[in-house]
Amino acid sequence: MVYHRGGKGGKKKNREVQGDEVIRVPLPKNGQLFGVIEQALGSGWMDVRCEDGKIRRCRIPGKLKRRMWMRVGDVVIVQPWPVQTDERGDIVYRYTRTQVDWLLRKGKISQDFLTGGDMLF
């Protein structure tokens, strides 16, 4: 680990990447699904095409809405609601481009799923 002295504030950490970088990618847990955002509806609502072939109207919880932007085409994890399971859900996590590449390499999602062709497998 390399430490550099910043201007006014204490220490800043710059990590040197050596060898293969470890990427921690959260995967859907029980009941959660991969999804791709199809349409932004406003007020924190999105239409998401899920891996089971259904299009759910999903909301972005406040803590995610304030932290990160969601765009059409982003890969997300969807938690279906207990009521209206096939129609509604919450967006739990948004993947970065690097994480999506990792998911594709590991076979967790397919290119067809991203482009709207066949579903997951």
TrEMBL record:
The keyword Protein biosynthesis applies. CDD domains: S1_IF1A. Seems to be required for maximal rate of protein biosynthesis. Enhances ribosome dissociation into subunits and stabilizes the binding of the initiator Met-tRNA(I) to 40 S ribosomal subunits. This is Translation initiation factor 1A. Keywords: Initiation factor, Protein biosynthesis. InterPro entries: NA-bd_OB-fold (IPR012340), RNA-binding_domain_S1_IF1 (IPR006196), TIF_eIF-1A (IPR001253), TIF_eIF-1A_CS (IPR018104). PROSITE patterns: IF1A, S1_IF1_TYPE. The gene is eif1a. SUPFAM superfamilies: Nucleic acid-binding proteins. Pfam families: eIF-1a (PF01176). It comes from Thermococcus barossii. GO terms for molecular function: RNA binding; translation initiation factor activity. The keyword Ion transport does not apply. Belongs to the eIF-1A family. Residues 21-96 form the S1-like domain.
